[in-house]
Records
---
Amino acid sequence: MVFIFLLSAMAFGQTPATLKIDVAHPKAAVSPILYGLMTEEINYSYDGGLYAELVRNRTFRNDWSGILNWYLIEKGSASATMSIDRSTGPSKALTTSAKMEVTKADANSPAGLLNEGYWGMAVRPNSRYKGSFFAKSSSMGPLPVRVALVADQSGQVLAKTSLAVLGNAWKEYKFEMQSGSVAASAENHLEITVEQPATLWLQLVSVFPPTYKGRANGNRIDIMEKMAAMRPSFLRFPGGNYLEGNRIETRFDWKKMIGPNVDRPTHPGTWNYHSTDGMGLLEFLEWCEDLNMEPLLGIYAGYSLGGQVVKPGPDLETYVQEGLEELEYVTGASDTKWGAVRARDGHPAPFKVRYVEIGNEDQFDKAKTYEGRYAQFYKAIKAKYPEMQIIATMPINEMRPDVVDDHYYKRERGMFEEARHYDNTDRKGPKIFVGEWATREGSPTTNFGGALGDAAFMTGMERNSDIVIMSAYAPLFVNVSPGGMQWSSDLIGYDALNSYGSPSYYAQVMFAACLGDHINEASVSGAGDKFFYAVTSTPKKLCVKLVNATSVPQPLSIELTGIGAGAHSAQIQTLKANTIWATNTIAQPTRIVPVKATASINGERLQHTMPAYSIQVLQIDRK
Ligand code: AHR
């Protein structure tokens, strides 16, 4: 039997390897929050992504060409113009509006505005769409306004409603529309029309489809479900570069991103597009709540990407206070100043926060001020929140930070090397948060080579998860529509209608689904440098992670010392591909997905052959 096993293995060209696992004596504890998520506004992550708003440029920004994403409708003999009116808007935050002047229109010749959405608008059968806008009109009496979701190609009206705009004072109008038994599609747009001459001012036009858990101002269901399958334990937000802003004025200025959308001025993000800020501070926190993740809050720390730095000392104090107030908004009881604001915003219960991060990638600060800035934030935060763990974005010489955030973006070969990075890390130093990492292979989402690099790197983090306490892949999202991507090799791709997971996504789903509470000693002999492993366990199960990044099968004898006599059942999940370029796409979303099998192990040895280019998770019953 052993002879046949060896013969067939040698025929494939890969020498048999042995993986010895000490089942009985688990060593260090696994961090219970090893796997989490990192997010920022990049690749249309929120606008045109997770944040379910259908209307693009709902606040009517314009450039030389006119109002972006909006078009004039003049059907039949109708005649109208649209322009920006800088003299009037519904709030201090939104001081301008779209002015639609209709000089000729009737029931057969309506005039109005069309919004193209984020590369279309998803309309599904039998769904309810909730919308609103701020408006005023020059008409003496009520001005009937028709709102409709319309198919681009056929012109078919898929859902519609009408309402009357009353008078020349700004007022919010809410509406709902119901689709019938239409085919799900993204080739649709929004029309807002009138059937009589009139002047209509509009601002903050919004339409939401059904959202995850039915939240108002909420998130796309399909993308939330994909994240839920990853079982993330925390969410690092709001960046990344997006936290820092290109300039101080365009940082994540959280006070401008709370409360009703009409009070949010919007701002230019760092990835070459404008943010609606509909995904504001409370929305991030509710996203955490919905997926049972703890918030890991990034606090702006006085350094912006363009190179502006706020020196430590009195100049920085404003930002330290801003950070403290932000923490109070998030964690304070509703009788504190900022906790009360959160309660006013609809969430009386405080959120629990154990980790805050001071800035992002401050090694790029050429003025080298981070040590001082970190120390100033550290002192102020610890004084008010002694238990808070304060993450530094780079190593600090003057003091020992609680946690240091390491980032890795490498090609496949580089990540294979990094898989052993933490094996010899000094356990007396600060804990490690791998706050951004990815194998950059494949575009827009990673291919199987990326997944192999990612899985190899995850084995390294699991083997060392006594010191690597948290990790998060980045970027998490990409809108795969033309122009949607600013950073390639992303985890989850989508367009207006559908979403899909990359092979790396499925590797992460598999790894998170079986994670023990202790690390088990294991060693391998006879395998090449493209074989990776990690073993963790609970008293009930053993989780064995294996990666064969070669093009040939890997025969493996797994010795389970101390597992005990008798039969043990095992579930084996395999993710594999024929080439490292193989991948999933928006059109072919499930070419590479985990396949489940079961096995029975008798005694302490399992003869196993890993397929070529494969990632496997073996969950072995210890009873
Ligand atoms: O994940 C993309 C970017 O990479 C992040 O914004 C930044 O922190 C890093 O440089």
---
Amino acid sequence: MAYAIAAPAITTVPVIGGENFPVHRIYCVGRNYAEHAREMGHDPNREPPFFFMKPADAIVPTGSTIPYPPKTSDYQHEIEMVVALAKGGRDIPVEKALDLVFGYAVGLDMTRRDVQGEAKKLGRPWDMGKGFDQSAPCAPISPASKVGHIAKGAIWLKVNGEARQKGDISQLIWSVAETIAYLSGYVTLAPGDLIYSGTPAGVGAVKRGDKLEGHVDGLTDLAITIA
Ligand code: MN
């Protein structure tokens, strides 16, 4: 095929073992841990999950130094477990949902909280608060064929060695399978999709020079520095 301009590169995330995972879309779940829902001023009593997106090329590999983004003075961390899909489909039943999963990784849903807050107040889209350049750091993916399906275990984030966020994957309001089932009612999921599954309590601002370390039990840690 003759393209009018050079075709954009495919964004990839390394897979433990040496291959690379090509990224199709990035979906994110809002308020999926009760304590975080409360810290953001909401009642966590299982309101249905809701979703937003980031562009695929917002992915940043572990070990990167990323610039403090423009247009914010409240740039915040959200540590999350990322689910990578090997298969797609729509209207997937909960019992079949985990069959779609390729593997799991540690990710950060970096957020311009002030921009997001203004959008919420004005009933505007969240995109510029959530879906900006380099807003989706992601550590290498561990295949489920090697580590199994991650349904429990500690998730935490340290900033400059100090604990900031702490939770357990078992505290997800909507499990990975339920999230996939719900999401597939809205969109046709595809191989290469990533789902950021939500963040536990303790979100907060970062500043230039901060070193972020993210962890989920059983997965490879994520390390990011803010320039
Ligand atoms: Mn998030």
